Amino acid sequence: MITPFTEAGTLDLEGARQLAGRLVAQGCDGLVLNGTTGESPTTTDTEKAELVAAVREAVGEDVTLVAGVGSAATRHTIEGALAAEKAGADAVLVVTPYYSRPPQEAVEAHFRQVADASGLPVMLYDIPGRTGTRIEPETMIRLAEHPRIVAVKDCSYDFLGTQKVLAHTDLAYYAGCDEHVLALYAVGAAGCVSTVANAAPGPIAAILDAFDAGDTARATELQLRATPLIEAMMGAGLPGTVTAKALLARLGLPAGPVRAPLLPAGREAADGLLARYETLAAP
């Protein structure tokens, strides 16, 4: 989920409540807060905790809330996990430490220390394109032995490595790239953590629903139908946060500005996003 801001750039908690309610009503059975699309690098620890508490109040206890707490420092990540637990999160999303490029032994130690520090389940976030460091499949398999490391948000773009981990562990995998929603689900994933669903939760949920119903042809049709919007939001050179906020604003939903160093989408890009969305949403 995006983190909505007011036009003045402050946290828009009422907007967050509205967005969360819409997402749940249109097919999302869980929400990830303070992730990449939620602009976690530029929100404060206080804002992160306030967002979790506000969304928990809005959606009640039956909707799973996963809070992003990953940072470049193990101590800071642990502090974030404890704060998320206090604020009402059900689990934490922990990205690989970035910039310092730790070797695999250090990556494994980092995740184990975070998992040991709180009572919340941990979803590992494997996105080497942003962090510079992969969680190698062998590391993932060892981490799966920890009782609180239970899930993975997969943005590795290593489909073979992902299948290897799926074959050797009980980790619940979630596609973190919208173009992989159906492909990963078909080989045993548990679902997806979607940026595109910020604007189009129903069409993304429908892909998984069709597959669950045994209608794989329909699931394929729905994935391909969503592809133009996925490409426009995720593959056109702008960050997903920028495109999601631009499209939500065109739909009259809370979004607000992005925080620097990100810049807003231009009018032409926003027009194109709306056109792709309207095509997808049409009967």
TrEMBL record:
Active-site annotation: 125, 153
Gene3D superfamilies from the entry? Aldolase class I
Query: Where does the source fall among the domains of life?
Result: Bacteria
In the record, what terms sit under GO molecular function?
A: 4-hydroxy-tetrahydrodipicolinate synthase activity
Mention one GO biological process in which this protein takes part, according to its record.
lysine biosynthetic process via diaminopimelate
- Give site residues, Part of a proton relay during catalysis: 36, 99
Q: Known EC number(s)?
A: 4.3.3.7
Looking up InterPro entries in the UniProt record yields:
Aldolase_TIM (IPR013785), DapA (IPR005263), DapA-like (IPR002220), Schiff_base-form_aldolases_AS (IPR020625), Schiff_base-form_aldolases_CS (IPR020624)
For this protein, the record's SUPFAM superfamilies field holds: Aldolase (SSF51569)
The chemistry this enzyme catalyses reads:
L-aspartate 4-semialdehyde + pyruvate = (2S,4S)-4-hydroxy-2,3,4,5-tetrahydrodipicolinate + H2O + H(+)
State where it is primarily located: cytoplasm
- Record-stated family: Belongs to the DapA family.
Please give the HAMAP family that the UniProt record associates with this protein. Answer: DapA
| Free-text function comment from the UniProt entry | Catalyzes the condensation of (S)-aspartate-beta-semialdehyde [(S)-ASA] and pyruvate to 4-hydroxy-tetrahydrodipicolinate (HTPA).
Q: Describe its partners and assembly state.
A: Homotetramer; dimer of dimers.
Q: What is this protein called?
A: 4-hydroxy-tetrahydrodipicolinate synthase
